[in-house]
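Project outcomes to date are best conveyed with an example. Our students and postdoctoral researchers have been running inverse folding experiments weekly, and each run begins with a structure described purely in tokens. The record below, which covers 585 residues, was selected by the lab manager from last quarter's runs and is presented without edits.
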């Protein structure tokens, strides 16, 4: 077994791996950027090394610095977690050359599965069903059109090296193809340094069903059943569950064989996931994630298998601790990703400082998180605060338990997806096990998930300013939550003795609403693309600009019809939440 493991990641997955190391009596090493000096994952490990500034390319994505930290710490193995360098074949090779074990698959498997086109070609030869479409990237738009015509519209333009929803654009008609093709290539270059794109048929409203596999270096390959990850925003998952609500025993056995065949086809070992599309009774290979998945927790909850521990043991050369016939699926598990996002504003990122934090607990409740009270959710990294996972005997009971846990979860100081999760888990669509894609794309419904706002009345001229305060009141032994609205008192009110109270200023339009001429930024980020200029005539809903924040491109649309009379932004500008983007009269 290893003498020391360095964890080349941050946040909740770094803590998850550190816990597994502690249980296996293996010392762990954290790495951190300057902005993460006091992050919880640093304290979760036995040692910690600074590897650079906040910019990921200069810290968490720097192969040279990670290898250097291994040498400095004496770590003889590296667990990459997910994201960062987890699926970087060059990183796996660099570790191997340095005599350090990569706790993951061989670089050859990462190469094979990292290219979506190569993966499709390999799977097709291995007899694994793939979505109709190209197995080679399109050289240009003309070739992309030919691929689209052959696959049949609607089509998906996909970055060859893409993953996690990045580099994925849909063209419903030939008129949409150019924008989708260019957008996919742009994201592929930005996130994976590869602008190659291929085209395949877009399956409308399929279920996203994936299979967890484990394979050792002795050639043993098993699967741990499936997860349904159909509820997504921007092709990125927000809720996962296991088992799949529309997978029976016959399909489980069939897709399990597809998954294990796919792993064998590339000489795979470690933990991995075969992602696929369930379309009625059909199942198509989509891609393979050559790492531990964010949502591995739901599989752990229904099988009792510690996937991270198995990864470490496999990397150390041990055989799998169980055979396929030993795998048992018990009960139902659901995971909600608790992101710092505003679902009511089309899932725009909402970074900020956590001012209060209280986790749920009780039977069947698990929290994997990388924050504490006072932590900063920074725009430099993804917006995940943590993952809330619950288990119960069946899907209905697990849903009720999740709703209870969500009610207990308190995160102050920033917006999260908790109100969204509460809303969607109470819908008829969720109850029926639907993909909920109609709700996820319904801006009007998403606005209903906004947390309620309570504002104190505006004081009239000459009156003291009024504020709202919450109190807990006990009457005859019964507790009541009471909101009292009255004059501001205390330090703030006494700051200027004898001064005439000021009338509270009213904001026109409430932050860029339809009654305001000014369109305000809903988030902090940088202007990635501008779609208008001063003098442009726009309709409500037209694209104004694209803001890049927390590794996502966010489309900002016109809040009203009119002419763009003021445009104070340009590509590359940094903007804060509330900054004016355009004046539309």
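After processing, the design step wrote out the following sequence:
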């Amino acid at each position: 077994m290893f003498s020391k493991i360095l964890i080349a990641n941050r946040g909740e997955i770094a803590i998850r791996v550190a816990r597994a190391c502690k249980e296996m009596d293996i010392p762990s090493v954290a790495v951190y950027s300057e902005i993460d000096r006091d992050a919880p994952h640093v304290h979760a490990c036995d040692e910690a090394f600074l590897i650079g500034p906040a910019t990921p390319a200069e810290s968490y994505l720097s192969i040279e610095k990670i290898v250097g930290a291994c040498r400095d710490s004496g770590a003889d193995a590296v667990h990459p977690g997910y994201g960062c360098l987890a699926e970087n074949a060059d990183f796996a090779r660099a570790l191997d050359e340095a005599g350090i074990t990569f706790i993951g698959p061989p670089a050859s498997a990462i190469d094979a599965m990292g290219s979506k086109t190569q993966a499709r070609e390999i799977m097709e030869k291995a007899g694994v069903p793939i979505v109709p479409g190209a197995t080679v990237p399109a050289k240009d738009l003309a070739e992309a059109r030919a691929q689209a015509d052959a696959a049949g519209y609607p089509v998906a333009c996909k970055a060859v090296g893409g993953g996690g929803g990045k580099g994925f654009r849909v063209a419903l008609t030939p008129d949409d193809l150019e924008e989708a093709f260019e957008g996919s290539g742009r994201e592929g270059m930005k996130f994976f340094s590869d602008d190659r794109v291929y085209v395949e048929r877009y399956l409308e409203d399929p279920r996203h069903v994936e299979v967890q596999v484990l394979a050792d270096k002795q050639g043993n390959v098993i699967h741990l059943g499936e997860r349904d990850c159909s509820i997504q925003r921007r092709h990125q998952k927000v809720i996962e569950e296991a088992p799949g609500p529309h997978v029976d025993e016959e399909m489980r056995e069939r897709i399990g064989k597809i998954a294990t065949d796919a792993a064998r086809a590339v000489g795979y070992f470690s933990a991995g996931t075969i992602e696929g599309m369930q379309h009625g009774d059909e199942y198509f290979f989509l891609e393979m994630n050559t790492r531990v998945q964010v949502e591995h927790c739901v599989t752990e909850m229904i099988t009792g298998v510690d996937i991270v521990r198995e990864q470490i043991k496999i990397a150390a050369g041990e055989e799998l601790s169980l055979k396929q016939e030993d795998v048992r699926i018990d009960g139902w598990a659901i995971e909600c990703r608790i992101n710092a996002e505003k679902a009511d504003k089309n899932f725009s990122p909402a970074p900020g400082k956590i001012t209060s934090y209280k986790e749920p607990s009780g039977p069947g409740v698990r929290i994997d998180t990388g924050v504490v009270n006072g932590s900063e959710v920074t725009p430099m990294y993804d917006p995940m605060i943590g993952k809330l996972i619950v288990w119960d005997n069946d899907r209905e009971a697990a849903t009720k338990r999740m709703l209870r846990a969500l009610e207990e979860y308190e995160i102050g100081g920033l917006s999260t997806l908790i109100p969204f999760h509460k809303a969607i888990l109470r819908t008829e669509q969720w109850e029926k096990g639907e993909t909920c894609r109609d709700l996820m794309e319904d801006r009007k419904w998403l606005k209903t998930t906004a947390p309620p706002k309570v504002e104190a009345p505006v004081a009239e001229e000459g009156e003291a300013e009024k504020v709202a305060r919450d109190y807990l009141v006990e009457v005859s032994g019964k507790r009541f939550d009471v909101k009292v609205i009255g004059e501001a008192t205390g330090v703030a009110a006494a700051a200027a003795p004898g001064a005439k109270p000021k009338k509270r200023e009213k904001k026109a339009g409430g932050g860029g609403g339809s009654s305001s001429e000014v369109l305000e930024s809903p988030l902090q980020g940088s202007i990635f693309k501008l779609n208008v200029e001063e003098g442009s005539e726009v309709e409500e809903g037209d694209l104004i600009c694209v803001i890049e924040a927390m590794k996502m491109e966010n489309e900002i649309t016109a809040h009203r019809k009119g002419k763009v009379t003021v445009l104070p932004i340009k590509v590359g500008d940094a903007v804060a939440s509330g900054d004016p983007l355009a004046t539309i009269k």
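The domain at 5-103 is CATH 3.40.50.20 (Rossmann fold). The chain is about 25% helix and 30% strand. The training component of this project remains on track.
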